[in-house]
Structure formats: C-alpha cells, structure tokens
C-alpha cells in the first residue's frame, strides 16, 4: 500500500516537471526571432510573441477567485535563483536559462520639464489589449535597479508579482527599505515613519473603517442621519447584538420585510443567513447574542435570465485629500446559479440568494467564463437562446452589451455607481484621517502630517472591491467594500481583468525612478523645458503638498468665494502643482476612469465638514474647464507647458 502511494507520488512529480518543461519550450518557440525586437523593451511590450520578462509563474492562479476579502495568508517566500552579484535579500531572475536583467520602461510626463514614472505594461500572457505606448521610453540600461517588496503577511497573487517583475522591478525584503513599492498589509507606524517621499504602499492605515461591515455601516448611517435620502446608498442595517431591540422593533413594524444577517469580518458568503420578519423564538435568542450586522434584504434585484447578480467594481484611491478616485472600466458580474424567487420558503437556498463565486462554484450548473483567452469579449457573449447567461461570471463589458440589447440605460447606472462610490469614500475620510495622524504619531496634523522620513498624503494608495447590487428600478445598492479584493486569476477572464488592473494602478500611482535611470538621456525621457520653467527634482515631484494645515486654510478662504475662473487666476505655485499632478495622473490612467475630482464636484462639498484646500483647488480647476485650461496660452510662467495631449 505504502509503495503504491510512493510510486504515485513520484509519477506526479515527473508529470509536473514534464508540464513545466513543455510550457517553457512553448514560450521559447513564441519568443521573437528578431534580435532587435527582443532588445527593444518598447517593441517587446507592444509586439505579440515576445517573452522578454515573462516568468514561469505567469500562469493562472490556482487560488480561488472569490473577488472578496482574502484573509492574510502567510506563505513561503518566492523561489528565486540568486545570481552571485546580488546583495542579500535582493531577488534574481527566476528563468532557468540563467540571470536575465529586467528592463524598465519609463513613461514621460505630458508636461515639459517633469520627471517620468515607471510604466507597467501588460504581460502578454494576460491577453489584454496593450495601452498606447507612444510616450514610453526605455530606461538607461546601466542605471541602478529598482525594487519592490511583497511581504508574506498577505496572499501572493500572480497578477501582482508578474506585473511588478514585468515592470522591471526586483524583489527585496521589506526591512531593507530599498523598495519603491510595498505590497503588504496596512503599513505599521514604524514602517510609515521610515517612508521616503518616493515610497508607495498599497494600503492606507485605517482603511478597515471601510472594509468592516459594521464600521462602514456606522459611517454611512451617520451621513444618512444628516443628509437623508441622498445618502441611502446601502440597505438599512443594525449592528447586533447592540441594536437588537431597534431591529426587533423594525421587524415587527415591517412584517413583510426580508433580512440578511452577516458576520462583521467574514467574506465569501460565510455565515450569512437570509430570513423573513417572522423569526422563530430560538433564532431570535441566538441573534440577540451573536455579533454581526443585519440588513434589509433587497427583495427585487434586477434579474438576467431569471438570475440574481451583483457587480464587483474596482475602485482606486490615490489620496483622500485631495480625494482622487478612479474606477476601473472593467469589473465582474457574478450570477447566482439558481433561478431567483423572493418566496420565504426559498430563503435557505444560498445559490439563489447569494451571488458569491465561492458559494456558486459548488453548483454543477456553474459555468466558467473562458473569455480573455486571446481576445476580448465578443459581441455575442452573454445570454443563450433561452435568455440564460452563458457563463456564471461576466465582465462589465458583457453587462453593458446586455443593457444595450435590453434598452436599459447603462450610462445612467454607471453615473449612479460613481456617485455611490464617492459618497462612500467621503463618509470614511474623517476616521481615515485620524488613523493617518495616529500612525505618524502627530495628533491633529490632518492629512498634512508628514513622516520623519518623508511620508506624505500621497504615499499610500488602495484598490477597493465595491460589491454593488442593482434593483429592478436600476438603483445601485452598496453591499460591502473589500479592502483586499481577490486578485486571483482562476479563469482567463479574471486573469485579463486583474492583471491589467494591477498594471494600470501601478502606472497611475506613479513610481518615481531614481534620476540616474533617466537623467543620462534627458532627450529621450524628459521633454525639453522651455523658458524659465525649472524641471522639478524627483523627490520634489513625489513629495505631495508641502504647506501647513493652517496655511492651507488661509489660502482656501481666499479662493472659496471666487468664481472658478477668478479662483484659477489666483492659483499660486502650490495650487498649480496640485492641478498639474492630478492632470498628469489622469493622462496615464489606462483603463481607469477618473471619478473624482469631477466637473460636478460642487454637489459633494456639503458632505465634508469643511472642504479642504486641496479639494477646493481641484474643484475650481474642474469647474473652470479642467484639462482644457492647459491648452490656453495665458498660464503663469511657472506652469509647465503641456506638450502631449493623448491619454495613455
Ligand atoms: P461577503 O463578504 O460574505 O461576500 P456580502 O455582503 O458581499 O458578504 O454578501 C454576500 C452576498 O449576499 C452578496 O454577493 C449578495 O448576493 C447577497 N447580499 C448581501 N447583502 C444583501 C442585501 N442586503 N440584499 C440582497 N442580497 C444581499
């Protein structure tokens, strides 16, 4: 018996090795035959058939694709074959053919005289259509290396690792502090206080205010109390057991209502129950003791082919002050695998009422979406002749096509979803600001608080997974926000969307290369500066807004009462730096759409206790015409000239 097991084990190992060898052979066969192609990183990135920086891990994740919060999963370090010249803790190339230096591409600013950022183009394996690369230039090959750190405290997604490597960065341990990108849990006070101005981390301290079901409800409920219907963007909730009596009274008042109970910090549908107002005594006693949140259940979801679905929308925040929000133009649509009914007898059926992938994948009726294997969705993707979704997961693009076919207004829904996202983020700004100050040990410093090493309001960014349900009147409802959305690529569709998302986010964030990587060849990466514009130094460009909170308040007072045109004419260098940076970011946002600041930003002013100087400047700029202003000839001499007008 034992020897048979051992034989099977050896057989499996041989088969695994053979599979890996075949994969490498196939990649080699696809590699460019022209020497010139393989040596020019720009061509490498744009042409199909090259595998310049592709690594053996660039395959589909085996990890489940739950699109949900992934609890931290300590994992062993990445296997790496270190070349002898490497410093301790620094990663080498993993290709078995020997060390191969990674190549960095830089993306020029659209403004003259401003330094470039690192460009993270899409891996060929993810099958996403490459973004326009006309502003990309290779970095100085003999320049210094750039590094990232991915700690073992969180799950390691191939989408993240592959894009960081493809972007030319090498991995180091977090303690070395040599990295420019830190992909980990929330930065600790010790870490954040050591941050230099160019270092970036993938979490804001304190974003659990958004990610925990009870805390987000508390933040949104406060806003609902103040602003009423305008803030009814999530179903009414009660945090149990504290608010048990309030819920019990509501349940008795609304005898026809349905409810959904959820544990506060769980995900993937774990522990969720759907119930009617008519709750048996025993269950009531249980609910009165258990920690969780109970919400009004939305009984009338929009159905496709009779099935309930929800949407996973990827939202990127670059800073909370100024609030800079981008929404990915692609997201996921997740279907329940059983036909929907709101009859009380069906409430136990999780595959009818919950749309989580982790719940529905267990149903033999679950159909994988294979789109993304080579080409983006075809027009006919969607429903079959019987009106049933052909796959249990769609991309947002497929949903858009479906809406158009059914004469439903997707654009109106998209606008309403952007509004929901902005309102949600404003509702958590205060607690996040408090956590920012606490982490830096500077009480009442506001977002102007800086770390001793140079951490600033732009040092962190975050990718959020907003789960949104649409009802039959096409109103979007926020179900929850995941602060660690799954980036696993369990299907070709997931792989395309998530790999592209990570690449777009990192390019947007703006990883600043050391000057030695680009200053040697300024004509190629640095648009010549004309007149008396002085090119900003790397650190300066990455340092965020440098004036104190008091000074900002004074300047805000001066601008607040002015018309947008007048306010813009009063902008000083600090204000223009904010505007130029925001516009430069938008011009390199790839598939991410800027949702805030936006031209109708004035409607959100009331929701902040006090509109900050940074938000005010960007709002006035938007109201005065936004990017069109840069085409005007009457800008002050210190404003850099915009020399490129096409978005990347
Ligand atoms: P989890 O973090 O466990 O995934 P969610 O809040 O996302 O918890 O809920 C899981 C699923 O339950 C959702 O994807 C959705 O299909 C359904 N659901 C959650 N809240 C509601 C609600 N208030 N009304 C209707 N359906 C809901």
From TrEMBL:
Keywords tagged on the record: ATP-binding, Ligase, Nucleotide-binding
Biased composition range(s): Polar residues: 33-43
The reaction(s) this protein catalyses: L-glutamyl-[protein] + L-glutamate + ATP = gamma-L-glutamyl-L-glutamyl-[protein] + ADP + phosphate + H(+)
Sequence segments annotated as region (Disordered): 26-102
Originating species: Durusdinium trenchii
Keyword Ligase carried by entry: yes
Domain of life: Eukaryota
Annotated protein name in UniProt: Tubulin--tyrosine ligase-like protein 5
